[in-house]
Amino acid sequence: MIDVRTITSDDLQQRLNQGGNLELWNVQTDKWFNGEMIPGSRRMPLDKIEHDTVGIPKNAEIIAYCGGPQCPQSTQAAQKLGELGYTNVRTFKDGLEGWKAGGHATDKLQEPVPAA
User: Which residues pair with 60 in a beta bridge?
Assistant: First the structure.
């Protein structure tokens, strides 16, 4: 089992303010994803990580988050990324709940409607 490092809300906000090459991922699966995301993040569902990380350098700074502290998906994503050889992965354990509780804004991702 891989040791999963975490990041706090304040540290995440500071890291986002610094900019640079940060990969901030909402890893909620389709079942739990409601379109809400931390600004500057992208959608990378836990069940698609293995396929969708092709081309992302193994030393990329990746921070995974999900719905909140009770959601295991960010830890599962970090463990999966570690198994795939990624070396600079952390989780934001407080997730969207903690982000909003800290007074931070969220974005709403508008998913395309599937063709009928």
Answer: none
**pLDDT of the chain, 116 residues: tens digit per residue:** 667 899 999 899 999 998 878 999 999 999 999 999 999 999 999 999 988 887 899 999 999 999 999 999 999 999 999 999 999 999 999 999 999 999 999 999 765 444 44
Strands 22-26 and 42-43: parallel
Here the tokens at position 58 are 């193994």
Which domain CATH number covers 42? 3.40.250.10
What angle is formed at CA 107 by the lines to CA 25 and CA 80, rounded to 5 degrees?
10
Domain count, the chain: 1
Q: Is the pTM of this model over 0.85?
A: yes
Q: Collapse the DSSP code of 66 into the 3-class scheme (helix H, G, I; strand E, B; otherwise coil) and give the result.
A: coil
